[in-house]
Specification:
Elements lengths: L3 E7 L13 E7 L2 E5 L21 E3 L1 H9 L7 H4 L4 E2 L2 E2 L11 H11 L5 H5 L2 H21 L3 E2 H18 L12 H17 L10 H30 L8 H8 L6 H17 L2 H16 L1 H15 L7 H6 L1 H13 L5 E6 L3 E3 L2 E3 L3 E6 L39 H18 E5 L7 E4 L1 E4 L4 E6 L8
Parallel strand pairs: 3-4, 3-11
Antiparallel strand pairs: 1-2, 5-6, 7-15, 8-11, 9-10, 12-15, 13-14
Helix pairs in contact: 3-9, 5-6, 5-15, 6-11, 7-8, 8-10, 9-10, 11-14, 11-15, 12-14, 12-15
This protein binds protoporphyrin IX containing FE.
Length: 466
């Protein structure tokens, strides 16, 4: 079949567009795509998206279509994105891991094995690690406050989330705020490479890009060889009868068969790389956006600080139960993902004909589903939208996706984000460095372009709270 290169430019009429927040320029090879944007009467804002397909414009505003597509296991992830992510420029990348697996049976088997590492009992036991890693960030921030230097908050929270995932998932202590490591750069390179690889079909044929493509391949290889080494160490420990944690690495090993073929080994590495990347970047970006918005809204910041003072006072160890009491902080984090869905969408292959919003769509199309809410006054950062008594926005807010392929790490991510934010609010006053941009960088995931530069001061928190 003839594959055509279409340039799809999606513009949202939202004022967000004016700050370049929801502007995507996507270059994809495809035959036929439909964009589905959730819309509900209570989300009064009408999203109008131009979908250019050789002058053909199609956009569906329909919440039921969205839920039907995402909730049903019969619509696989589409091959244009997910099959392509098997490798980057010829080097195996996410392979058939949890995010990219398209075959339902194979995916389901992996997911069931992985579930125990995300059960609420297991997560409760991780609170100590979240606290311990967040404390390292607080030590670093204390140094920054003393030195009166500027802090790049995105970089710092990235170090913490990477520290957390390597410790919690793989039992490895990187301590990135103290020691340098090749991993942050390797992840960054893989993500950038992923964007070029997915969106520009001719990228790899341009001789100018050869050096860069080699860097991307090298970065993928680094992650996979590291995985191979850490898996081999863990397997040896298991064979020796040593006590090993029931963490993600143990589950990855269990997900593969006992008699290992080369493909089984590669499959373990697929999931290793999947967790290394999926388990870190999106949470770091959410944290950085939250800090940015709190810096822009002193009233919301004060309210969040007051709640933290009331709930945790001057305690250093935040308990699992404390996290449940930080209701306003949860609202802040939810509103952050509404304005900045760090993983903005997903896509499914629909083989059969469908009627959505009264429109008949012939089978064999790809549905791009955007997972953020378009609500009234969308530019306003307003955590009260998520007040426990506020009307629930069904099917127009799902930053962790919906249905069987929804994010496995949702609770993990939100516990981690809350521990980090609560400690930050408890200990520090922060101010955004003036004249930095509030633009979003679309780097596969969404992140703040400025890095969120802040100056910090110590809070006199010891005299506040309980
Ligand atoms: C704020 C943080 C996070 C956000 C916004 C987020 C969002 C998402 C979204 C939208 C998907 C669906 C992707 C798709 O359809 O292509 C997804 C899948 C996934 N996420 Fe997350 N995620 C976050 C954090 C995490 C963390 C911390 C982990 C692991 C520790 C994780 C592990 C996964 C996995 C394994 C999948 C694939 C699930 C499956 O198909 O079975 N995520 N995430």
């Amino acid at each position: 079949s003839v594959i055509l290169l279409y340039t799809i430019i999606m513009y949202c009429s939202s004022p967000l567009h004016k700050q370049a927040a929801l502007r995507y320029e996507i270059f994809i090879c495809l035959q036929f795509q439909w964009l589905i944007v959730p819309h509900r009467p209570q989300c009064e804002f009408e999203a109008i998206i131009m979908f250019k397909l050789f002058n053909d414009k199609q956009i569906l505003n329909e919440s039921h279509g969205t839920s039907e597509i995402l909730m049903s296991p019969k619509y696989p992830k589409d091959k244009f994105v997910y099959k392509k992510l098997f490798s980057l420029f010829g080097q195996r990348f996410l392979g058939n891991g949890l995010v990219t697996a398209r075959d339902h049976e194979k995916w389901y088997k992996q997911r069931r094995i992985m579930d125990p590492a995300f059960s609420s009992t297991y997560l409760r036991g991780l609170t100590g690690t979240f606290n311990e890693r967040a404390e390292k960030l607080m030590d670093k921030l204390a140094d920054v406050a003393d030195s009166k230097k500027e802090a790049n908050m995105l970089h710092l929270v990235n170090c913490v989330t990477l520290d957390v995932i390597t410790k919690v998932a793989f039992g490895v202590d990187l301590d990135l705020l103290k020691h340098s490591s090749p991993f942050p750069k390797a992840i960054e390179t893989c993500l950038k490479g992923m964007v070029s690889y997915l969106r520009d079909r001719f990228f790899q044929f341009n001789p100018k890009n050869r050096g860069y493509i080699n860097e991307v391949r090298e970065a993928c290889r680094l992650l996979r060889t590291t995985g191979a080494q850490w898996i081999s160490e863990r397997k040896t420990a298991m064979q020796n009868g040593d006590e090993v944690p029931k963490d993600i690495l143990t589950q990855i090993i269990k997900a593969a068969k006992d008699s290992m073929t080369e493909e089984d080994e590669e499959f373990m590495l697929d999931n290793f790389v999947t967790f290394f990347i999926a388990g870190q970047e999106t949470t770091a970006n959410q944290l950085a956006f939250a800090i940015m918005e709190l810096g822009r809204h002193p009233d919301i910041l004060e309210k969040a600080k007051k709640e933290v003072d009331d709930v945790i006072g001057m305690k250093h160890e935040i308990s699992y139960d404390d996290l449940g009491k930080l209701v306003y902080l949860s609202q802040v984090l939810k509103e952050t993902l509404r304005m900045y869905p760090t993983a903005p969408g997903t896509s499914r292959h629909i083989a059969e004909d469908m009627v959505i919003d009264g429109i008949h769509i012939p089978g064999g199309f790809v549905a791009l589903v955007i997972n953020t809410i378009f609500s009234n006054d969308p530019l306003k950062f307003d955590p009260d939208r998520f007040h426990p008594d506020a009307p629930k926005p069904y099917y127009c807010y799902y930053p962790f996706s919906l249905g069987p392929r929804a994010c496995l790490g949702k609770n993990f991510a939100q516990m981690e984000a809350k521990v980090v934010m609560a400690k930050l609010l408890q200990r520090f006053d922060f101010t955004l460095v003036p004249e930095q941009t509030f633009d979003i960088l679309d780097a596969g995931t969404l992140r703040p372009k400025s890095g969120v530069l802040c100056t910090l001061g110590h809070r006199d928190y010891k005299n506040k709270g309980s």
